[in-house]
Backbone:
């Protein structure tokens, strides 16, 4: 096993990470070395790792150093310590409620890798995701923010219509939607590995979702059954393409994968479809926004 580490200037680190995730969709380890330097690392066999010219291209002037190191034989077990369970708490009040309801009927979501013990607390839905297969374990801010907003959408009312998950990755968002009662659920991704991973993860979690390989840049959305909810954990250029090619506005759309400075531009792009901002959230430099065509 090889560890490929890229050290970049902190001021440009989030922009580099956004591009790096396109080269390493299974996820990136992030370490803060000092006030000026961030280290990103990816793991795999030599042929599985991003090419050095590609890394230099995405890091540009932010690059400080690229290094590789061979990991010990027990890395297959030590690697697991980097992937911890994530608890997404249920909303404590509905969007229109004036007072807090501590007895929310919605469950919390607990996303864990398969080697972690189950969460046995009442009112918790578990999602088991293999982090070695595709991006989206719940640990990254973009996924967490989208899961938080998904719970908020579900808290609005009891309607659970069709869901389209564009850029499904590991399938974690599609699986969460299915567990919350949305149906049918269709997950789309450009990577064949992600399509396979999402399908397998759905089986592990005992939910039914359909998965298809799809490239938002060249293909028309499969809009045979107009979705009530679209999930789009994508980078800004792909969200812009989605806004341009969508045949109609869904009732709700959750857009994530954005840097904070990119949210207003994305909101404006989807406003042309009649979608309006309902809520935005951020964690660190990342943000997600809930857009809605509904009047309630």
Residues:
């Amino acid at each position: 096993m090889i560890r490929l580490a890229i050290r970049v200037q902190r001021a440009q680190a989030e922009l580099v990470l956004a591009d790096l995730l396109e080269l390493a969709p299974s996820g990136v380890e992030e370490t803060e070395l000092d006030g000026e330097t961030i280290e990103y690392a990816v793991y795999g066999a030599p042929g599985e790792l991003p090419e050095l010219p590609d890394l230099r291209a995405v890091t540009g002037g932010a690059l400080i150093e690229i290094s590789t190191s061979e990991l010990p034989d027990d890395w297959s077990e030590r690697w697991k310590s980097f992937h911890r369970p994530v608890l997404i708490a249920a909303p404590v009040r509905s969007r229109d409620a004036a007072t807090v309801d501590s007895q929310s009927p919605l469950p919390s979501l607990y996303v864990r890798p398969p080697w972690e013990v189950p969460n046995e607390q009442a009112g918790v839905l578990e999602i088991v995701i293999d982090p070695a297969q595709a991006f989206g374990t719940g640990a990254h801010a973009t996924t967490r923010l989208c899961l938080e907003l998904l719970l908020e959408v579900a808290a609005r009312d009891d309607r659970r219509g069709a869901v389209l998950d564009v850029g499904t990755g590991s399938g974690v968002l599609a699986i969460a939607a299915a567990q919350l009662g949305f149906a049918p659920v269709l997950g789309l991704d450009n990577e064949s590995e992600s399509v396979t991973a999402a399908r397998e993860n759905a089986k592990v979690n005992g939910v039914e979702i359909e998965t298809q390989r799809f490239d938002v840049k060249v293909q028309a959305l499969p809009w045979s059954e107009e979705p009530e909810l679209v999930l789009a954990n994508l980078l800004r250029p792909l969200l812009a393409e989605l806004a341009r090619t969508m045949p109609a506005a869904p009732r709700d759309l959750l857009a994530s994968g954005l840097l904070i400075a990119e949210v207003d531009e994305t909101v404006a792009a989807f406003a042309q479809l009649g979608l309006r901002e309902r809520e935005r959230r951020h964690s660190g430099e990342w943000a997600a926004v809930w857009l809605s065509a509904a009047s309630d």
